Amino acid sequence: MIKLPDELFRAAFAHSAACKLIYTPDRKLVYMSPGLYRLLSYLPETLDQTQFSSLCHPADLKHEHRQFSAVLAGQTAVPIEKRLKNSQGEWIWVQQQLTAISLSGQTEGIQCLIADIQDIRSRKQVEAAHEAERARLLMVEAIAQLGSWQINAETGQFWLSDSCYRLLGYQAGEIEPGDLLSLSFVHPEDQNQMRQSLNGLSGRREPADSSMDWLDAQGEMSLDFRLLRPNGEIRYVTSKIHPIYSEQGQLLTISGFLLDVTAFSLKEQLLQDAHQLLQRQHQHLRELGQRLLTSLKQPLSLTAPVVESLSAEDS
């Protein structure tokens, strides 16, 4: 093995953006690369190596301790994410990968530990933006009583939003794959319609396939059906279903949303019932009027001959 002089080793990282730390097996920090000083906006003379541990966020120390323990035990430790405080007092998110170094021909075991530090602030910003967008989506879904879902047609794996679980009458993650695929959440009277529609999607789609004319211009399908919750409650929903096919016409995924329209359906049903009731009452009043008119005509017909005879006598 070629052993590099200490000066050459340090020169290799002098102008490198790589951020590395070197520890002894008892976790004593013996080297910090210049790239790490630059990342944290410190000058080498202003940050002593013995002070570095104080720059780690207290909540992340336990993760770092587990990583060190795993590597020292001969295990392959997964990277950890932690926060380091820069010279302005700001917390910077980094990812740390720890590797144990054992020199060949030596019997003492681990000679040192090398920590590779990677700046992941950009990734954390993207994740935070996605999480904020997801929170807004969940809020909108909860307010609108709307639930989204997706099924992988190849693996059978599915994903439901929290609002979709609630709409089906379950807690998040509670429903089993078998219950979902068997359509047990659909009202028994609507299951055949739902099953036929989904089976129609699962077939191979050829270009300009006329058998899929029931898909709208956006390649989606609309269904109205009833949900049967575990507690026996019935909810009316409308669903927009969007299938995605490969270039060969094979179904890949099915995604869509459920919108609870129970209040509108019940209101519409109440209006229909009220209209039918008014029609029956109107018909009943017409029949009653006709019977009254008939009953009034009968006494008049009986008295007509008497009136005529009296008129004849007077003359």
Summary?
With about 325 residues, this protein is α+β, with helices and mostly antiparallel strands. About 40% of the residues lie in helices and about 25% in strands. The protein has 2 domains: about 10-120, 2-Layer Sandwich (Beta-Lactamase), CATH 3.30.450; about 125-265, Beta-Lactamase (2-Layer Sandwich).
How are the SSEs placed, and which strands pair?
Layout: H1 6-12, E1 19-23, E2 29-32, H2 34-39, H3 61-72, E3 80-85, E4 91-101, E5 112-119, H4 121-144, E6 146-152, E7 158-160, H5 162-168, H6 177-181, H7 188-202, E8 221-228, E9 234-245, E10 251-260, H8 262-314
Antiparallel strand pairs: 1-2, 1-5, 3-4, 4-5, 6-7, 6-10, 8-9, 9-10
Polypeptide structure, described:
This protein has helices at residues 6-12, 34-39, 61-72, 121-144, 162-168, 177-181, 188-202, 262-314; strands spanning 19-23, 29-32, 80-85, 91-101, 112-119, 146-152, 158-160, 221-228, 234-245, 251-260. By secondary structure, the protein is an alpha+beta fold. It has two domains: 8-119, PAS domain (Beta-Lactamase, 2-Layer Sandwich), CATH 3.30.450; 127-263, Beta-Lactamase, CATH 3.30.450. The protein has a five-stranded antiparallel beta sheet. The longest helix is centred in the C-terminal third of the chain and has 53 residues, at 262-314. It is elongated, with a radius of gyration of 39 Å.
In the predicted model, the low-confidence regions spanning at least 5 consecutive residues are 207-212
| Largest sheet properties | 5 strands, antiparallel
- Averaged pLDDT: 78
Give the strand order, joined by hyphens, for the main sheet: 2-1-5-4-3
Query: How many domains would you count in the coordinates?
Result: 2
- Helix segment count? 8
- The proportion of strand residues reads 15-25%
What's the CATH H-level superfamily name of the largest domain? PAS domain
- Under the CATH scheme, which class of the largest domain? Alpha Beta
Structural class: alpha+beta
Q: How many distinct beta strands?
A: 10
Rg result: 39 Å
Net shape:
elongated
Run of helices and strands: HEEHHEEEHEEHHHEEEH
Helix content: 40-55%
**The CATH topology of the largest domain is what?**
Beta-Lactamase
- The span between the termini is 154 Å
Annotated CATH architecture of the largest domain: 2-Layer Sandwich
